Every structure is written in structure tokens, then in C-alpha cells.
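Q: C-alpha cells for this one, please.
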Amino acid sequence: MSTIPCHIVVEDNPAIIYASRNGSPVKVLPILNRFLEKFWQERDISGEDSDTPECLVAQIVVRFGFELCEDDFSNLRVGLSFKPDVEYIYQVLLNQTVQVWTPTDAYQRDANLGLSACREWVGNGQFSNTLSTQRNSV
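A: Here is the predicted structure, written as C-alpha cells:
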């Protein structure tokens, strides 16, 4: 069992989804990208655009409950605080993209710094040279 903890956050929503395991990009990104592709298609077809951040958080929790929890739903939580032990933070943006962030040492010392103490993960273990320009807002 993979014990890589992660967060999933949605732009313009204060909720912070926490999964205590199975949080590697290899595991999360295929599930998240498939889900988001369908989510955005359905929103476009229906013409619905209200409460998008709220709908995203609710539906991500449901999807990841089925996909990652392995019959142990204590693995998945929703709160308002960042956890210092996460290895990845997946940020769903309303422009229909996902950014993956990795916490710095500063984040691990003080998770309240949020995304402002993270650097962008660009794949294959590589990182961009810049820290997030995001403040504590999600």
C-alpha cells in the first residue's frame, strides 16, 4: 500500500481534501484528469456554470472515495487546514487545468504557509525553479 499523502484543492474554494495514501502523481493524475474531462464536458453541455468550485470539491471527494480508499474511508478527509506531511498538492484551476505542487521545507515546518511555500512539480521528478505565487488562498 502506498503511503504518499496528498491534498487536492480547488480554485476559489477553501476546502482542502486530504488523502493519507495513494497520493503519487502516477496514481492521482490519471483519475483526476479522467474525472475533470468528464466534469467539464457535462458542465459545457448543460450550460451550467454556477457553484463550480463547490461542485468540483463534492464530486472529487466522491470520485476519490471510490478510487483511492480501498474500503477504508478514513483515508480521505476534507478540512480547512493544510497538513505538513503531504508530498503533493494538486490544484484544480477553473481554467480547466491541474497544477501539481510539492511542499518545501518551509511548508513542512509551517503548513499554514499553504501553496506559497510550494514549488511546481513538472513531472518525472522535476521541479520548476519558482515557488508558487499563490498566497494562502486556494
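A few notes: The longest strand covers residues 98-103. The mean pLDDT is 87.
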